[in-house]
Write a structure and sequence with these properties.
heterodimer, A: 113 residues, mainly beta, 5-stranded antiparallel beta sheet, 56% strand, B: 116 residues, 7-stranded mixed beta sheet, 4-stranded antiparallel beta sheet, 0% helix
Chain lengths: 113, 116
């Protein structure tokens, strides 16, 4: 079983649609959680952190359920520019205070006219 | 600009050859990471440095792989006797400052390796 599991998609949605991505993780010792965005043939970049209380950044809302080991990302009013791969990421602190991020395979989103 | 420069951006080599990738964080960050990403997969952790000390290594890092960060600034990742399965994007990343930081990593643009 993979440590972080996501539906690979692709999700093809019309502009203006609301789309939700889900992710589960297996390591209950995971300490922090993120969504990263990766454009085609580019490096991953942080989209937002994810907290148990839920957090929102403009059109993006992220939610964490530690009991179920489940993470979600909701994108409202999707734009063409949202087309990318969305990577679910969990973090465990390692020796020396560093961070070991474990990435899911990513969910591909295509927003269409 | 994430403050991480990688070189070369692309490398094509024949099976059995050795390759070396270099990572330069623009300013000195004590934590530096290497990841590998194959097509259709998320990045996979390879190794982590705090200053010049290599503190974590993934079991993915076979004996053919070696990483160094001799002065705690730039880092190199060498692959000896390359195999076709080594074809991937090799990503270097820096962490944020402070104890543990926020968990956010800033990735370079990567070095894409193709082994023929």
């Amino acid at each position: 079983r993979k440590e972080v599991e996501q539906d690979p998609g692709p999700f093809n949605v019309p502009e203006g649609a609301t789309v939700a991505f889900n992710c589960t993780y297996s390591n209950s010792a995971s300490q922090s959680f993120f969504w990263y965005r990766q454009d085609c043939r580019k490096e991953p970049k942080l989209l937002m952190s994810v907290y148990s209380s839920g957090n929102e950044d403009g059109r993006f809302t992220a939610q964490l359920n530690r009991a179920s080991q489940y993470i979600s990302l909701l994108i409202r009013d999707s734009k063409l520019s949202d087309s990318a791969t969305y990577l679910c990421v969990v973090n465990i602190r390692v020796t020396g205070g560093g961070n070991k991020l474990t990435f899911g395979t990513g969910t591909q989103l295509k927003v269409e006219l | 600009d994430t403050g991480v420069s990688q070189d070369p951006r692309h490398k094509i080599t024949k099976r059995g050859q050795n390759v070396t990738f270099r990572c330069d964080p623009i300013s000195e960050h004590n934590r530096l990471y290497w990841y590998r990403q194959t097509l259709g997969q998320g990045p996979e952790f390879l190794t982590y440095f705090q200053n010049e000390a290599q503190l974590e290594k993934s079991r993915l890092l076979s004996d053919r792989f070696s990483a160094e960060r001799p002065k705690g600034s730039f880092s190199t990742l060498e692959i000896q006797r390359t195999e076709q399965g080594d074809s991937a994007m090799y990503l270097c990343a820096r962490g944020t400052s402070g104890l543990g930081g926020t968990g956010e990593l800033f990735f370079g643009e990567g070095s894409r390796l193709t082994v023929l």
